[in-house]
Amino acid sequence: MKFEIKQLKIIFTLYVLVCSVYIGKSQDIQRDTIFAKQLLIKVDSLTEEGKYKESNTLALQTVSILQKAEKWTLWFKAHKAIFYNFYYAKDTNSCIPIIKKGIAQLPDSEVKIHGEMQFILGFCYNATGRIFDSLDAYKQNLKNSKKAKDTLMINLAYGNISQIYTQLGEYQKVIPYLKGGIEYGKSINDSIIVWKNLKALGDAYLFLKNLKKAQETYKSAQKIIDNKDGTFELYEAEILYKLEEYEKALVTAKKTLLITEKCKKEASKNQQYCITNFNTVSILLGDIYAKLGKHKKALDLYKQSINHIKEEGNLREIGKVQLSIGDTYKALKKYDKALANHQKALQTFIPDFTENDPSINPSQELWTLEIWLMEIFKSKGDCYIEMYHDFKNEAWLHKAIENYNLAITFGEKIRLNYTETNSKLLLGSHTNTFYKDLIKAKLILHKRTKDDTYIAEAFQIAQRANAFVLRELVNEQAALKAAGIPMDKIDLFQNHRKQIATLDEKIEYSENKDSLQNVLVTKKEAFQELKDLIAINYPKFTKLRNDLEGISVKEVQHNLNSNTLFLKYFFGKESIYVFSISKEKFFIDQIKLPENFQELIDTYRQSLSDIVYINNNLNLAEKQYLQTAFELYKTILEKPLSHYRNNTKIQQLTVIPDGVLHTIPFQTLLTNKSDSWIRLDNAIVKKYAVSYHYFSKMLVQSPEELRRTNKFTSFGLELDETTLEYLQTVTKDSLHNNLTAENLRNGLFSKLSFSDDEALQLATLMHGKSWTNEQATKTNFIENATNSTSIHLATHALVNTQNPNISALIFTKTTDNNSNLLSLNEIYNHNFNSSMITLSACNTGFGKYQKGEGLQSLARAFNFSNVPSVTATLWSIPDASSASIMKLYYTNLKQGMSKSVALQKAQLEYLQNDEISSPASRLPFYWAAWTHIGMDEAITFQPENNYINYFTIAFICILVFAVVLWFKKTRQS
H-type helices in 418-512, by residue range? Predict the structure, then answer.
């Protein structure tokens, strides 16, 4: 009993001791917290007095106290004070290690404060030009803010991420983020949030060269707040500069400079905005003077600006101005100073690169994804090439090639890191000139050295310049299969892509676009996370996807038939390069373009494809066709063909066009002057079968072949009233021709009288299956066309010239709410697994042209979706003549001809057979729109597999015969 009492006394004593310690500690924490609050008041007071160093010393002491007390809200307040002190002192770089240390010390449970600290860190990184560190910090800020459900910080994070993507050139990606920020600001009546996001949205439109939308957006922001600090005057000057109205831009920029100078002197104004605007407009003035050829004035402004920017400590802006100074010295032919400043710019953007010798470039291991590095390499290349032209030193030519190569490699690396297709396309359009400069330098070197290696390398470079996005998509599909990725992850990958495509289409037609945009952003983030995870776990995927090298001349020759000539076109600045390759020979021709080349193309295409113009100006249209068809032949084909004049074997041309050549048929070019467009004895189609490819590697790529269950499948529809009514609502921005609607397959009111008959006749001819009229639904097409050996589709097409992703093929409208449009986006995201498809509809091979990429067409989408051979049209096709040509085409295919030869023979037969066509219907408009793209081999058609049915019938017949025989024998016995 005594022992138990003794134990209880010990326990009680310990309990009292623990309580005393706890109470003491609580009192200490309370006392420390009160003291820390007093220190924070003093910190704020010192900051107001401009004593930033003293304030920070005290704030750091406060942080230490609050960390021990675990008072994290006040602890964050102390860090925020430290940040503001560094910000006001224009020393945000020194803030970074303190904030990083604080984040490391902060408990994981304090999710909201983690988000707020990452926000400060992102701001500091961005202010010092460390843009990618800033992006990572803002993404962590967003992640933690979402966990904490901190809606204000979520929207600030979206705004900041948008700003970074704008700086990186991913302008399309920022738009949904910014629109979401605007909507949030409106929902909580916060005009500042709306104003900031509107300004950033205007910047995105400005960089996307959508100047009208940029101007409208800036004006909307100005209506909310105009601080008279030069912000909106600066926007106006930038728009005028983008419009190349340099004199007007100069006047506006000078006016803006005066406003910002006045603003800097007014204490009531936000000095940071005033200073930033002053520096920005000073640089813009330098850019304007440079464009006007006043390089000395430009140089003075750049030098003044760089001194001001150095005070702010923004390394990114410093690097950009150093680049501009280098370019200005180059224009003044002071090459040493130009290269020295380019080298300084490299060192600014890559702090670990310290080499002052301009002939030495940073290794790729040192590269960041800072987009201005690409421009520096390009500018160094330009400088060296001018030095070569002035001094004829071959060493400078090699240095120019080195730097152009680096610029191209860097641009491709950036594009591969972009997640938005439109961003890839926009950057590709900008960098297209890099490839031109490199090819030109290679050809100068070839001319100087007579070494054919350089023209072979020029061919490789020309391939890298074209169809980047399509090549990447093709590689990505192949990499998913070849990288050892589990099937469930591949399915997830494809599902993400399909969901994004579906959302894109819904947004286009929805009245509630903004809410869907937010869903789209979330979907895209999830898809990107999956891609990042695959890249980490399956390195082979990234390696295969990023392998965008072309094929060699020898590989082309190995894959050519002896009767085929391969022609690859590439537009330079004032010339066109034509690479012509036969089984034995290879040539490159640099052809100077006539000044009226674009006019020739436009007139040629108009005289071929615009039936309204043709009907109203028949004689003039004929004259224009005969003239332009011959002139274009002399420009783009005569010289390449001349190398093979003695090769009588060549009867087929495989063409990879570039630029505007995508929009015209080569078949109708004339090798000599002619007097009629009905008798085309001199037309290319008379001598050569012509096929096209989107890029050179298509020659050697074998499509994925799954088991094909169907043989020939055709679809044709004569549109009913329900479908016609629906079409009225979805034809905005689509190519159509109301004046000839009854005759063409894109007229809004055309029922397509021949389309269903065409599908039925071809199915009979090819022993296949057909779906017509009410059975020609989108659902039936996807279910039954997939895995067919050959697909034929006779219908309407809507080709959207503004947003090619919603270009579509039209099917019969069903009574449910499902769309009867098969959009380009949907085609891209479906594996049709067919050997070929014929798109017997208008403009299926035509679409929006993107420099460096080609036409964004329905044909191209099918080619990507595992249909290696596509027959399509370049303009609105007549219903009756198309049906006739298609019957001839498939008859030829059935006889074992290649696709290009089958099409050539069909077009010639149409022109020569009086039972099929009359002189009035032999104009090129009626037959020349048809082109073949992709694999050209002959295709073997087999009838539907009815062997089982035949066997069953035969078996029944034998059985019946046996029964009858048995019955007779039985009766006889």
Answer: 421-449, 453-465, 468-482, 487-509
